[in-house]
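R.M. (postdoc): so does anyone remember the format we settled on? I'll just put the structure tokens first.
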């Protein structure tokens, strides 16, 4: 009986296919892929799923207070005014991703920064009134400049 069981385990083990190793940025399970048109509130394990990908990212680093909640609401308005195929919208709360915020050098809250695609460090910081129209205009200008720069190299 033991011999039959061990023989069965041997055949079962041989039939298993090894999962291919992939290090591509775009090869991630569907359940972790960012969806279009959604404002993300990531935890530390998921932060880099929304930053440094094919799309640019607009991130609001906030604390758990009234200005932070207001800016999160503004980001919900921005998602209706912006092209989601070019930009991820992320709200990073200090209580969720404190170490990442410290690593990014953010000391003032709320802060809005722009991450270029495939970059793990923010490139531009928003300076101005945090209204949906103003932030959308600024983000679209950043995207347009980067698109023009990429097209001029071709």
């Amino acid at each position: 009986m033991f011999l039959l069981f061990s023989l069965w385990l041997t055949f079962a083990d041989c039939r298993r296919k090894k999962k291919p190793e992939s290090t591509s940025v775009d090869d991630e399970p569907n359940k972790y892929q960012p969806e279009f048109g959604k404002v993300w509130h990531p935890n530390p394990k998921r932060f880099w799923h929304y930053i440094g990908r094919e799309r640019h990212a607009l991130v609001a680093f906030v604390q758990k207070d009234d200005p932070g909640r207001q800016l999160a609401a503004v980001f919900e308005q921005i998602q209706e005014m912006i092209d989601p195929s070019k930009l991820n919208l992320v709200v990073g709360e200090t209580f969720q991703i404190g170490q990442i915020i410290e690593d990014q050098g953010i000391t003032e809250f709320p802060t809005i920064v722009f991450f270029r695609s495939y970059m793990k460090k923010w490139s531009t910081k928003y300076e101005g009134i945090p209204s949906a129209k103003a932030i959308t205009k600024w983000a679209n200008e950043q995207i347009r400049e980067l698109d023009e720069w990429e097209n001029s190299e071709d």
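R.M.: ...and that's the designed sequence above, right after the tokens. Also worth knowing: The helical segments are 2-15, 47-50, 66-81, 94-103, 132-153. Residues 32-153 form a domain with the Glutaredoxin fold (CATH 3.40.30.10).
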